[in-house]
Design goal:
It is a single chain. By secondary structure, the protein is an alpha/beta fold. It has one domain: Ribokinase (UDP-N-acetylmuramoyl-L-alanine:D-glutamate ligase). It has ten helices and 13 strands. It has a nine-stranded mixed beta sheet with strand order 5-4-1-8-9-10-11-12-13, sandwiched between helices. Strands 3-2-6-7 form a four-stranded mixed beta sheet. Helix 1 crosses helix 8.
Length: 317
């Protein structure tokens, strides 16, 4: 059995090469990526056996996704569906002032119909951590019920529940997200949330340290991690707030940075590290991911340890 089990949708990302426009490109780069599978891969790469649960169309595109994740070493436990389609998204990359843009194409997917009864709940209850994100309940009313059921099942089995708030404005409005996600909070032990989401969606005020303390106190989480972009993160645990700066990095791709952070944080905590150490390792994993194209963090324990010990200096020297 895996120590970490994650649940969510993995899409196929199609991107024009370089900074070409979507409307004129004649070819696409294709890769699989989704928050929950990205977290599983990052944790697995750092020594935490991980399983990804999902519902996938039994089509070549669905098989492409599952095959891609298996090649990264995680176990996949999927419900194959003859109904619904494979979710995709398109990313046009560009620097300022044009900026990058993302277009989702994930209506009527097989995953949107996933119900808790379709999965082997023993996998969740035998894991040490069950992880999902706020993206999943944003995708359908069915998935709102499924997410709640899986969190409850994990708790009933004594499994620690971890949740990345991961608000996506292209999927739903702040008011709907707040109403839905705060109902899930009583079933969550470890919350990861961006400072901007705590302010925009939950209406909290204050600096990240204050946000972490308010969230932990109000909702009785075991641990709260508030990410603050290029300024790093803070972690609240046992009523103490710990700060962690971000490591300098030359960015190749920012996609999946937060997932690398979360996967490394979970892996570090499962390895017995305290919250400050886990934050250090998570920040190092995030910095490393930004040097890697694609959605997943192809990193090693040795690289993470080197970034921490060298303070983010160039590891090739």
């Amino acid at each position: 059995m895996s120590d970490l089990v994650t649940f969510g949708e993995t899409m196929l990302r199609l991107s024009p090469p370089g900074s070409e426009r979507l409307e004129t490109t004649s070819e696409f780069e294709v890769c699989a990526g989704g928050a929950e599978s990205n977290v599983a891969i990052a944790a697995n790469r750092l020594g935490t056996p991980s399983t990804w649960l999902s519902k996938v169309p039994e089509t070549p595109l669905g098989q492409h996704v599952v095959g891609s994740l298996r090649r990264h070493g995680i176990e996949t436990d999927v419900v194959w569906s003859h109904r619904g389609r494979q979710g995709t998204y398109y990313m046009e990359r560009a620097g300022d002032p044009r900026g990058s843009q993302v277009i989702y194409d994930r209506e009527n997917t097989a995953f949107a119909t996933a119900e808790a009864r379709e999965f082997d709940i023993d996998r969740i209850q035998n894991a040490r951590v069950f992880f999902t994100t706020g993206i999943t309940p944003a995708l359908s009313s069915t998935l709102r019920e499924t997410t709640a059921s899986m969190l409850k099942a994990a708790r009933n089995g004594g499994t620690t529940t971890a949740f990345d708030f991961n608000y996506r404005g292209k999927l739903w409005e702040p008011e709907q997200a707040e109403e839905t996600l705060t109902k899930l909070f009583p079933g969550i032990d470890v919350l990861v949330i961006a400072a901007r989401d705590a302010r925009t969606v939950l209406g909290f005020e204050g600096d990240p340290r204050q946000l972490a303390h308010k969230l932990g106190s109000q909702y009785e989480f075991q641990t709260v991690v508030v990410t603050r972009g290029s300024d790093g993160a803070v972690g609240w645990h046992d009523s103490v707030v710990h700060e962690q700066d971000a490591y300098d990095t030359d960015t190749v791709s920012e996609i999946g940075t937060g997932d690398a952070f979360t996967g490394a944080f979970i892996a570090s905590r499962l390895d017995g590290d305290d919250v400050p150490t886990a934050l250090e390792n998570a920040a190092a994993a995030a910095a490393l991911k930004r040097t890697i194209p694609g959605d997943v963090a192809l990193i090693t324990d040795e690289e993470v340890e080197a970034v921490v010990s060298e303070g983010g200096d160039d590891l090739s020297r």
